[in-house]
Specification:
This protein is α/β, with parallel strands linked by helices and 243 residues long. The chain has 8 helices and 12 strands.
Length: 243
């Protein structure tokens, strides 16, 4: 028999009857630690560290009879620690792909300046392929998606409202130093560029022509943005969120 002990943050992934206590089970011959952990319901992407009989171990290590396996979660405090199971990019270099249920979170991340792919018809296999090909961090509330072998970096989003989801992600990944507000289109995700007023004059409402002087244009879809009341509301949200 082997004994698995899961950190408190990982308990919600376990079956209710298994929570709050060590989990003892037979050691399947040749089974990797990653396989054993996911058999218990915990996605490998949520694991921050593994110790076997007090010694650091990796996902590919094999379990042996009589071993005690302690499984930790991860947080912003240890993303770049030497004992971490995966290397995380600096906040300003993080890129994301959000599943079909997290469109509002994707828009908030774009507002803060993070490259975030999103489609409301994304299939799991597309998300996994995009994450692997472009080194993107997967954002999802789908536990099954997190167990896809092609996904190495992901965050299970626990909150249910967009505002709380954004705050949760900013805190967990320490994103605030990477904020680059209003540098990316919230609609199509392409970068924004400064544009002269004269170049977009014909596309502006009369009140905007009179009051606004600074404009940006999306390099992808061509939408024009200015610092109106909506811009100011979004700015206040970014000042509060993740603080």
């Amino acid at each position: 028999m082997i004994t698995l002990v899961f950190a408190e943050a990982l308990q919600p992934f376990l079956p209710p009857a298994r929570r709050g206590q060590p989990w003892c089970l037979p050691a399947p011959p040749g089974a990797s630690l990653k396989h054993l952990i996911e058999v218990c319901g915990v996605p490998h992407t949520e694991v921050g560290g593994i110790c076997v009989n007090g010694r650091p171990a990796g996902f590919a290590d094999r379990a042996a009879d009589g071993e005690r396996i302690e499984v930790r979660s991860w947080s912003a405090a240890d993303l770049h620690a030497a004992h971490a199971l995966r290397h995380w990019p600096a906040p300003e270099a993080m890129r994301f792909v959000a599943d079909a249920h997290l469109g509002a979170l994707a828009r908030r991340l774009r507002m803060a300046g993070f490259d975030t792919c999103f489609r409301n018809d994304f299939a799991d296999r597309e998300i996994a392929a995009l994450a692997a090909a472009e080194a993107r961090i997967v954002l999802t509330r789908d536990r099954g998606l997190l167990q896809h072998k092609a996904i190495s970096h992901a965050c299970y989003i626990r909150a249910t409202t967009p505002e709380a989801q954004f705050d949760e992600l900013v805190a967990r990944l320490g994103l605030r130093p990477g904020f680059r507000p209003f540098t990316r289109c919230m609609v199509c995700n392409a970068p924004l560029e400064a544009v002269a007023k004269g170049a977009v004059l014909g596309r502006l409402p009369p009140s905007v022509r009179l009051r606004q002087m600074r404009f940006t244009r999306c390099t992808g879809c061509g939408r024009v943005f200015w610092e109106g009341s909506h811009w100011q509301r979004m700015g206040r949200m970014l000042d509060v969120s993740g603080s």
